[in-house]
Amino acid sequence: MSTIQQVAKAAGVSVATVSRVLNHSDKVVDETRARVERAIQELNYSPNMMGRNLRRNATEIIMVLLPSISNPFYAHAVNGIAAVANNNGFTVTVCNTLSDRKLERDFLNLLKFKLVDGAVLMSQEMDDCELEELGRLYPVVQCSEYIDAAGVPYVTIDNASAAYDAVSHLASLGHTRIGLISSKVNYYSAAHRQSGYMQALQDAGLEFESELIKFGDYGYGSGMKCAEQFMRMQNRPTAVFAISDPMAIGALKAFRQKGLKIPEDIAIVGFDNIRFSKMCEPELTTIAQPTYRMGCRAMELLLERVEHKQDLPEKVIMDYELIIRGSTVAGS
Amino acid sequence: MSTIQQVAKAAGVSVATVSRVLNHSDKVVDETRARVERAIQELNYSPNMMGRNLRRNATEIIMVLLPSISNPFYAHAVNGIAAVANNNGFTVTVCNTLSDRKLERDFLNLLKFKLVDGAVLMSQEMDDCELEELGRLYPVVQCSEYIDAAGVPYVTIDNASAAYDAVSHLASLGHTRIGLISSKVNYYSAAHRQSGYMQALQDAGLEFESELIKFGDYGYGSGMKCAEQFMRMQNRPTAVFAISDPMAIGALKAFRQKGLKIPEDIAIVGFDNIRFSKMCEPELTTIAQPTYRMGCRAMELLLERVEHKQDLPEKVIMDYELIIRGSTVAGS
DNA sequence: ATAGTGTATGTAATCCATTACATCAAGGAG
DNA sequence: CTCCTTGATGTAATGGATTACATACACTAT
After folding, report:
1. Which residue among A50, A61, A69 places its CB closest to the CB of B53?
2. Do A106 and B91 touch (CB under 8 A)?
3. In whole angstroms, what is the distance from residue B304 CA to residue B315 CA?
4. Is residue B299 a contact partner of residue B278, using CB atoms and an 8 Å limit?
5. pTM
């Protein structure tokens, strides 16, 4: 590996001149520039980023923190984040916390240690206080999952309203016992979706019973288990809203295995519109978030913070869409 | 942000002593160490990694390069990679190339620029020569998708043999016209699976016809399109082997939409055993790769290269498993 | 001819932590 | 009592690039 010193010597100029050729480009006479560029070629030189970063105190790397890359929901958001980042000369790196506090902390240390310039948080294990401090010290934004109180900008949808629409859709189809498959993990989005569910029941004049809520972990398997619990009830629901597509699909699968017909015997609504929601049978009615655009928007907010050190705690609420398919209305 | 100098001054010692407290721990008397640690606490100091990395010429960060985080197949491998890496004090970062050569190059520059210590390649856009050079210059290993000729270590399964088993399974069920859904992208794994398919046909005494091969892009949608092509044939196959699960599931969906019964009218085998393969109807017969363990093994190889600069081009072939489910044998 | 202006380039400080080598004190051997 | 060893700590060079400031030169205006 050659250094800037070697290039300077080879070109017969000072390191400052080489640096000028590499960067600002101003005030270097053509002939000198040519000599330097030739030397760079010959030595196959490329600047050592550690040296540069140390001096500049910036890396132009952005980190995306998410709990599990195996959840396809995140993929589109990451693509949106990356698109905007790349357009602005930043590189994006994905860090998989596995919902582990210690791992999450390790990754966040990359911010502290200045190894990344900023972070997009797609879900966090930390509490409001920690997040609030993090937001004060470093450029971070939240995307999709968020904590409002922490003064950290976020991009999200109105989860309560989306859940309200999903459940109202079921109610409008005549269902009077509507189950909820929620999450035992205590995410705010889950709480909001749950309160949207409650509100929709109330507005439809339906009775709420605690038995109607089961708790999963966002995965297929847990959806199946919740469905089995529903089927063991004497007075089982005729419709179920699951706060994630994999849980909805797991439930759908379990119901069908027991011989129930979807949507005749039981209707199902999911959340997130993952690709597979169109592949299962019947296709799944679900809420679509504009994940790609949410990622883009989140990255734009982050860029403002990284570049201009602006720290208005912006809040962006994006539109969602209820996509009606065969799991609630036969033949659609 | 405080520096080591400030800590040294606050503790009334030299920077060397502070550094010793931070690192080797040898030869620092207890009382001094206590003073330094108190100063570190008070100043809320943590070492600047850029300075450290510049000096040490290492970052303890490992990069995983993959074409698309939305393909669930990669997630498990990444988890395996991360597990081993974390156990050894390394941080793992995932870089999403979107199969874009330029993006891939940008990410690989992180190696050149010393911003990461090594890389696990899960699929590459570059040609044999570029890969060979990359392997000579930096610690890299291949996982799953690989190029043999480049002298870069790899962990994989025997793709030809796996495809052979899949197709032989179909032949043993009595199918005589067996279609293949392959990839138009020119990955070696696709070529190997295709040659396993050919070999199995030959060994089963079946005729090959070029019409029996259709080409997709690994995704659901392309699987559906291929299935539609098959259905337009006068003499359509009674069984199909797809080299990815999403394509298999897409095909399954398309066949069912046309009223075909699976597996009675047409049997389907996929590849990768993604989670959905158990969620679709009927469940999908597929080849399972030990993805998590492959990730672990790849990371172990990489660690040898990163730490001991060992450069034997090791080749690890792992076992796969044919998982027989309802898409080929009713009721299983 | 002289002062003044502007442009191209060089010198050296700087970012922060690590580490080879230097120093100093204390204790042991002769 | 002197010399040597050992252990603890300090001094300063080092890694590579950036950049404020200095210098040198050419050219214009008077």
Report:
1. A50
2. yes
3. 14
4. no
5. 0.87
